[in-house]
Batch of 4 targets.
Target 1
Amino acid sequence: MSVRGVEEAALDWVWDHRDRFALGEDALAAEGQVNRTWKPLGELARVCASVSLCTPPADPLHGRVSDLLDFAWQQTHRGELFPLMQSLEPFATYPLEVYAAFASAGFRHPGYEASAAVVARTRGWRLTEQYPTRRLGVLEAERHSGIHPHGHLPQALGRTWLGGLPEPWTFERAAGYALTHVVFHLTDWGRSPQGVPSDLADYLAHWLPPWLDSCLEAQMWDLSCELLAVAAGLPHPPDPAVLEDAWPRVAAAQDTSGAIPEEGALQDAAGEHTGTDPYDFTDCYHSTLMAVFAAALTTARLRDADHAGQGVPG
């Protein structure tokens, strides 16, 4: 299956399961589980916002992701839920991070942005303790939401695992997810490859291929797709041989439904699961979204390379 084929099948699965991304009555509950409510919706919005920008308007996939974005925005009551979330958790950053995904696609709620700007001027907001990678994400969210960033990107980047140019043999799962999100934040989720400093770009150009190969070998499909998205978002795309090796392996892990498991061997749909879904939603929605994201960025970079006459194979 081609890169485009993986994207189409994965997006079909997302479309068919869009109701699973919907917010339930527990979205504003004090005991609600954010990772099961706002997190999936925010990730849907983030991926669709990026894919819509790198996919030509005439492409049917552009219309599909645009419809998914509209669906996701409706789940927030066209932004009305964000002020309510802020009133319940004034210093939580995830509402702003989810909102920023919508704002990056042109969906805005001026009232929420004004109130969020007030909170962002407090010492409590500036001093909230966060992992360095999360700090980068908050700075990006502030920028997209029209809020003056409360910190400086170079200093925040220098505190991350990737920003320190660590020994390559220290790469493992947690470091892998951290580095992918550092690059996502630096490139505005694939929109601006030149946002990656030259030293990091050179470092990743050298070490990303073996890291990707090790993750594919370990059947870590979710992290592999994130690394493929990083590869497609760097200032200079990887050697075509890297893509020609990686994408067929991802395609082989994709179920006929379009779903891709987070990790492990392909599961027989006739096994312990019934119906057409071989995996629980929580076990495959993120990896399937990441496949859409990585495939869209890869296709866009290959298309740009072809237009530039570089002859990179698709």
Target 2
Amino acid sequence: MSRNGQSSLPHRRIPVMDALPRPLFARSESLPERTTTPPHRHPWAQLSYAISGVLRVHTDDGRFLAPPQRAILIPPGLLHEVISSPRTEMRSLYIDYRTLSWAASHCQVLAVSPLLRELIRAFGQLPAKYDEQGAEGRMAAVLLDQLRAAPEIGYSLPWPSDSRLRQLCEAFYDAPDLPFGLAHWSERLGVSEKTLSRQFRRDTGLSFRAWRQRLRLLSALPLLEQGQPVTDVALACGYDSTSAFIAAFRLLFGFTPGALARQAP
């Protein structure tokens, strides 16, 4: 997994539990600074959701980003890291795998409806050993139903398995505004540009150009959520033209960068 400057970040504590007290368990955290977790796995699924702030989840196969109104569902047993932006209000749901037979075996970024958001907020205020047979148990059941109905969206970036391609991807992930193309990397890695292009598509399912554009647009999400001006974000993410950045952003996400920036605290 790419470190992306994470080695110097404060580590969040990972709860030590042999089993969940209930099939659905909530954890709330206020994170004023950017934080990360060490790579870890657990026998239950995890829904990582931020009321404010942006969450990133790193796995060997991809990078997943969730601004507000989005959440990341991590399947049981998957090695992962969770990285938060500054001023993140995080809500985690730990879910018994037996209640998630419908879930995919890979990470998913899900759209969070207003109803699901309020259910997550309310459930987070319940005691760990809530009454499963009463109103609290019914709330948990409705929450899980809403989670199952949440659509998956493409706020993810596939990650290659080839070590040379990982080197390339990590460099761009750390600095999205890098101007270098495949010709530069083919010379640096000692492989032909044609071979590098073919291997990149094989490992990620995307052309290098499409992958880099998606990376740049996903990298804009934390900056916009922090309230940075759209023009500054465009430049930081490698766009010389603000209008080109806005058009590409709208095409991928379905809304403008200005709309996300206006939601910032």
Target 3
Amino acid sequence: MESTGGGERQKVAVLGATGQLGARVVAHLRERGVDVVEVSRGQGVDVYSGEGLDAAFDGVSTVVDCLHLPTPSRKRAVDFFTTTARNVLAAAQRSGVARIVCVTILNARDPEVHRWLGYYSGKAAQEQTYRAGPVPVTFVVSAQWYELAETLLSQMRIGPLCVVPGMRSQPLAAEEAAAFVADRALEPAGTAASDDAVIAGSEVRDMAELARAVAERRGGGRKVLRVPVPFSALGNGGLLPRGNFTTAPTRFEDWLRGTS
């Protein structure tokens, strides 16, 4: 069991604790003996309004932001992520939180990338808000997850036909991203070599092709129409890692077999 220097259990608050990533992060932290505060509406905390944040952060040393808002709307995403980041910063400062770990998307801050996706614009605005705040922030920058292939099957659908853009990515499993986030959350403040910790998969893949493989594996008669996007950052490598990053080992085919 990990402990702080004073012999007490480390206390970490996880925002979005019931979500696809947040629930996994909570599990990894608890496996390591961490006292985890699950922050979600189900626990009576509304990060968007700020209600309940002060109580949730009481005695917390690190806050992990895994918040997610499933929306393609640029306006709604920017409003949500900037508002929640401001509320988290204010409550963290009042409560004496030492550090915030914010999970973001690979290259979301690049204007050539987020101009195409409203959700990415929200994440870019979230990063800017946290960087301007008074509490130290570590950004865990993750490539897209294999699980996105399943999400894409339902976003643009006409009967059995699923329209999916041919985005080039270097994806990984959400479980690997969660373990990486937990590792960063347990690092002592000020020990990281950079304020970014980047993780991506081992292979460059086409997300439309991954969606097609998921559809075939799951059954149900769904057909995938791949829409080329060669003249945008989504199709010309804008979603690929740049510089140093940690490589997640699980290949897509192994992940797909393991989740069927």
Target 4
Amino acid sequence: MTPVLETEGLGKRYGRHDALADCTLSVPSGRIIGLVGPNGAGKSTLLGLTCGLIAPTAGTISVLGNRPAASADQLARVGFVAQDTPVYPGLTIADHLRMGARLNPRWDRRLAEERIRQLGLDPAQKAGRLSGGQRAQLALTIAAAKRPELLIFDEPVAALDPLARRAFLQNLMEVVVEIEVSIILSSHLLSDLERVSDYLIVLAAGRVQLAGEVDELLASHYRLTGARGELDALPAAINVVTAEHTARQSTLVVRTSGSVPHHVSAAEHVDLEDMVLAYMTQAADSAAGLPAPRTRIQTSEAPR
């Protein structure tokens, strides 16, 4: 099956600044893809490249098997909702639906009108009088009624209160089931991504730090805790992501495709938040010129 997003050495430079560098991904279709990273990580740049709003300065990118925004048909296959869930304050909800029908050849009128009815919104109401949650739901409705194969959201719930955020995510899951669409969801809210995502991309310092199926990633990451010195000799097959030391104790977040060594007294799987934060910390340390955790810890060869 054609990947929903495939990149090779993708980069975008503004002047002397690399907003995104050496980005190589192959993301399968039919996933809800969580895109996470700190401010300035390159998330919006990657989304802009995926939509075709900006052009790369290095590498290649393919979306649904084609160059982004290569044709009217390609544009119709991708829906995009920007961070401020843009709607037109002076237009009514009905006006937005009529405009959507004019601009989108695949427009699903039944889906749009049914969603507005289910949300309890008055088609005659102007968008400027809607709450933040209602505006987000209107933007989601318009994007879904476009009947795309890929829907992209750039921080869609950042400004919403917890109840509106939960309602939006619930409706997003319903849309995924109804129109069988792939989703890329950029968010700072790790709890939201943990709730809905089955594929994860972690960006930091303009580079991909981690990417893969959420279940597989969680299964391969551990927190190891031991007395100071106990974790100094780990098999080379274990990749140390972060390391914290006190006078008496060492705590590591590691990735391994195998088992944890028997001599490690305490090992547990990390949750998604701790895993993401570990890679963000690793990227921040690298940007600050600090040595990688592996170079700070004496290692042994993997047992034969």
